[in-house]
Amino acid sequence: MDYASSGVDIEKESEAVRSLVGAITYEGRPAGSLGASVPLPGGFGGVIEFGDSCLVMATDGVGSKLQIANRLGRLEGVGVDCVAMSVNDLICVGAEPLAFVDYIAVPETDEGTHAILGASLSVGCSRSRTTLAGGETATLPGIVKELDLSGTALGWFPRGMSITGDSLEDGDSLIGLPSSGIHSNGFSLVRAVLDRSGCSLLEPCPFDSSHDSREIERFPDSKGEVTLGEVILNPTRIYVDPVVDLFLEARGEGGVCNEEAIKGVAHITGGGLSNLLRLHDSLGWEISDPLPVQPEFEWIADVGGVSSLEMHRTFNMGMGMVIAVSSEDSAAIADWLGERLPGSRIVGTVTNEGRVVTHSNSEVCYTTY
């Protein structure tokens, strides 16, 4: 099985995005004025001028993970997913998230559903230290067949303190931050594998779900063993703590490093490690010592007969964020991050052997994004 056969073709999706961007002709507000575009490589967030600061915006949704949550009637974690997908993109350009707004579309209004979503969004905003500034709810019978949830995050950074990848060089170190599981990408393939498996999401997990770098967030009324549904729906990890705290340390005095030591940040979402290719137009990335893979990924690969390359180009495979830092500061930064997010450590290096991602697993290699 692969992602394309389950309904999502990554290459066609990238082509569609390029077509969309290529058709946009309005250039926005004049350079130097409030709201003028600030070009940054990477595409993890849209940046605009705002006086002595820059504002950053990022938008995303929960995607087809919602279909599993809807099927189970377990929406307690999807608000966290919604917030996480946007704020984790914001911090990739060096921004501190400030506020979040949500968009909820439903086929029919239900007070209980909206209450659960409100509580879950509040948890996500608390974990990301953002203000839930508002949102919109649309009831769209005939258009929307089941709940959809998306949102937009706003952040900022002081002018001149963006993180772009421009200063990357051969030999810089890569620090991996562990994921909490599948996060919110690749769920069209997950659903196809679940259908093939014949397993019930309500039954005990068919594999040992324990993993050193995460805990499974149980449903509020759960009893007994962890279920497959709880593992599959485990909320996306939010990296504001400790990554934004690392930025603030670096911008202050006497911190673990100076700001020049942090050279690039990539959120590992759809496309897997190919997201690293956003950060530089010629350098490459070698993952020589990857983080441990959570058992649900091994189960998906086994049940679905999914190749190693396809797994790594669809899922985060245990590593939800990568920070590129100077080699001389890497040990201190990795230790600092590891104290705050256990499991974080050096996983590889930046290379000057072409714009390619290589991996200790020889089947995994990317040359395009």
- List the secondary-structure elements in sequence, H or E: HEEHHEHEEEHHHEEHHEHEEE
Tell me roughly what share of residues is in helical segments: 25-40%
Counting DSSP H or I runs of 4 or more residues, the number of helices is 10
Rg, Cα atoms, Å? 20 Å
Structural class: alpha+beta
Q: Can you tell me about this structure?
A:
With 369 residues, this protein is an alpha+beta fold. It has helices at residues 10-22, 65-72, 78-90, 111-128, 187-197, 228-232, 240-251, 295-304, 308-314, 327-340; strands spanning 46-50, 53-61, 96-106, 131-139, 148-158, 173-178, 262-267, 284-287, 319-325, 345-351, 357-359, 365-366. It has a seven-stranded mixed sheet. A five-stranded mixed sheet has the order 1-2-5-3-4. A hairpin with a 2-residue loop joins strand 1 and strand 2 (53-61). The longest helix has 18 residues, at 111-128. The radius of gyration is 20 Å and the shape is globular.
Concise account of the structure shown:
The protein is of the alpha+beta class and 369 residues long. It has helices at 10-22, 65-72, 78-90, 111-128, 187-197, 228-232, 240-251, 295-304, 308-314, 327-340, and strands spanning 46-50, 53-61, 96-106, 131-139, 148-158, 173-178, 262-267, 284-287, 319-325, 345-351, 357-359, 365-366.
List keywords for this structure.
five-stranded mixed sheet; 60s Ribosomal Protein L30, Chain: A; single chain; 10 helices; alpha+beta; 369 residues; seven-stranded mixed sheet; 12 strands
